[in-house]
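Researcher: We're reviewing a set of sequences before deciding which ones to prioritize for further study. For each one, I'd like a predicted 3D structure that I can look through quickly. This is GH92 family glycosyl hydrolase. If possible, include the structure in token form so it fits the rest of the review sheet.
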Amino acid sequence: MAIGALLAPLVEAPAASAAPRADEVRHPVDYVDPLIGSAGGGNTYPGANLPFGMIAWSPTSTTGDQTNTAAANGYSYDTTRVRGFSLTHVNGAGCHPGAAGDVPIMPFVGEVDSSPTADTKDQKYAAGFSHDQEKAEPGRYRVGLDSGAAADLAVSERAGVADFSFPQDAPARLLFRTSNSLNGSENAHIEIDAQRRKVTGWVLTGAFCGRRANGGENNRTTYYRLYFSASFDRAFSTVGTWENDRLSPGATTADGGEGYLTGADRAGRGSGGYVGFDTTRDNDVRMRLGISYVSLAGAEANLRAEIAPRASVADVAAAGRAAWDRRLRAIRISGGSEPRRTAFYTALYHALQQPNLISDTDGRYPGMDGTPHRVERGQTAQYSNFSGWDQYRAQVQLLALLQPQVAGDFAQSLFNFARQNGGVWDRWVHISGATHVMTGDPSAATLATFYAMGVRNFDAEGAFDSLYRQATVPHPDGLSDKGCPGQCEGQRPNLAQYLDSGYAAQDACHCWGGAAETLEDSVADDALARWARLLGRDKEADALGARGGYWRHVFNPEATGAAGYIQARNRDGSWVTPFDPASDRGFAQGSAATYTWMVPQDVQGLAEAMGGRERAAARLDGFFHKPDGSWSVRGGDPLRYDPTNEPGIHAPWLYNALGQPWKTQETVRQIVATVYGTGPKGLPGNDDLGTMSAWYVFAALGIYPQAPGRAEALLTGPLFPRAVIAPAGQRRALTIGAPDASDSHLYVHAVRVNGRPHATSWLDGSFLRQGGSLSFDLADRPDTTWATAPGGLPR
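Model: Here's the predicted structure for GH92 family glycosyl hydrolase, in token form for your review sheet.
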């Protein structure tokens, strides 16, 4: 019954669609490779998880420093030594280390005769492995270690089952490194109950991006506690704990954190415990475990509710695999090569890993005010892990399209957090913590996008009022430099100055960069304006709409003499000099050359500022090509396109608005073919909680969100001959057909929408909201006449 309960919330009414083709993918889960992105800076993790799940059970690797890891999220394909299997992870965060990695649990072969925390170089209590002994699949992770031990892990949403096997002729021990979260910890606690064959405890931690040089010190704080409860199928042969360098054989409790520093300032600190087993007759140890962010009782209730007492790893893995298959079948593709199917469904898998549950099965969750709360009336669950600056550009649109119920619950979750946080919507929320990471007001863009795409299961009026207040009423934090530049506490920094000047002044903004802040706030205000219009709030819509054009105040038409660029300004109106298009002065994780294109809400206005669409398109050519005409889409050149970070990822679609859609088609295909792929290096850079993966999914389908706060979609040539998009819980479906799709046939010659000729390179928002059929006639050479009429260009 408990495994059935695991599947129950994931069973949804299928959307109506045409009969499947013979070459349609029947089980998308077969094409998922969780190791994609685990090398080359993708920062994904290969461990066991479920869609939007709380638990993510995955290895923590080591390169010989117990206070650090081999990659931002604990695992690097190129590092084959682990010190445990941690219960929580965040997909693709860019800080190193990123976040979570809580409670590594390590099968150890040998006697525990010294404190594992004193093993600061991970020389004794870690183990190597080879990839031929490793298998990662949706919902399950298995690996054999060089020590002779092995781990087989499978999960439900909030719980898991593990089989740990050991050699029969050596001591078998299981270490609980309770304090050793990726970023360290303030405190940790463990209790071993030999009579009941249980190990319980918690870690008090946080500190997301706490090691960043540009403001991370401000984030070396605690904001959540993770509880765990583990029970075993056999008695313990030995027990013990440790605190710092002191080992206590036979002890059953221990406390102590590591702090949030690194290297010698943290090495040798922390606590944990171990249990041993007699494996002479049976070398396999089964552990059942539940977690909670609310209480130990909540962790145990989550385990009881989701996993049956006698469920095996195989049972739980089968249920998890079915759950993933069901979610992934929201898009059913036909045709395409095996590698492309793998790249596509793995991207969809990564895009649907977040947001993450933080509420227990009883609806309780930790609030941002430090106290427990229950989900709101009509809300299914409380979600967190909001990488707003990244996600609002692609991932939230995919979430709204495929999982509108989850999107609505997520919107309500962010509103709940804001109310618990004094009305402040933080731009990067981790568990129940406001981390302030990045810049701009992505919550406004995100919720406006959800509403535009038809998501209604949240308090839209209340959320809008709250976000409008944040955008119009200055907050004391907006004058603080704490955490600046990378994690400034003000969510609308120095708002009074911004409203007075019409831009964020570089010398007075209390932000990462004045030019970037202005562009971000312009996008957010335009999105809020469109939301206000849909709500019938015309007065607010007019005021916010005008602010959506504030990007013009930081566009200097004479920035270089040869061309205009977005450029930071001082409060007195002067331009910040000297100016270099390759410089990031005034910007956040990007150059002026990249940010100049970040005006998705007003491409026609940007083109006009550049001297017209023809001149803008010629400049865009230079953004994607080197002076010799060869492609430059892999990154590394600050004057050109960077596929590894978000400010410019919409740029390939700008050609549609500039009247040259065939260049969008060839540019997108070039990026898809050369920057994305299979294997551990198959992502261009940080996945950023599914954002880069969502970009690929949209590119492969031939559609892309036009701008935040809107449901319109831009068109390009699809990668597959057919795709059926079946949003969860709804009876509508979207069918995309491109019978001639191939490596050579990538150019759009004609389009039909619901059987009628369609002469523009964009779709009205009703298509994504209501469904229908979209068919492409593709050719092997550019069609320079389709969708080029000035009156039909995207605006």
